[in-house]
Amino acid sequence: APGGVMVIYGRNLALLAGNLEGWQGLRAPVQMNGTSVLVNRLPAPVLSVSPNSIVAQVPVETMPGQVEVSVLNTNGPSAFERARVERAAPALFFDQINADGQVAVAYTLRGERVSPGNPVESGQMVSIFGTGFGVAAPRQGTGEVVTRLAGFPGVIVTVGGQAVRNARTVLIPGYVGFTQTMLAIPGNLRGPQ
Question: How far, in Å, CA of 1 to CA of 123, rounded?
C-alpha cells in the first residue's frame, strides 16, 4: 500500500548490509550503500539493505494497481518486476511460526511481550505492530520520519472473530511506514486468538 513498507528478496542486491541505525535525518534516504529502489520510476526510501534483501517504503504518491519495481546498485539496474499496490494492504508483524501458528508481535501497555507464558486478559490493552494501512491522515510525505500524530480512520479490528471497539491505528513516531494498533482485548475469549 502507498506509504507502507515492502521487502524485496534477491541476490547481489547490495554489496554491504546497512540500515538506519544512528540516522539523524527527518527523511529516509533513497539510496543506501550504493543501492536504490524505484517504484513506477519513483525513488523509494530505503530503510535497510543486505546482499539478499531490501526493506523500502512504497512511495506515498504511488497509485493503486500494477507497478514496476527495479533495484539499482553498483552492478547497474535490475529488470523491472511487477507488483500490485492496493489502497490498503494491512500486514501485522509476526513472531516465528510455532505450534500455535503465527503469533502477532503484541505488547501490553507495561511493555511486556504477549506470549503463551504471558497471556493477556479480557479488557487488557495491547499494541500490535504492522504496516500497509494506506495513506495516513494527516498525510505523511514519502520517507518522512513521523514527528506528529497521524492515523488511519476507519480501521476495523477483530480478535477471535469479535469486533474491537475503539481500536486505534497510528504511524509510529520516529519511524517511516510502521504502524501501531492499540486495542482492548474483547471479553469471553480463551486460548490463542
Answer: 31
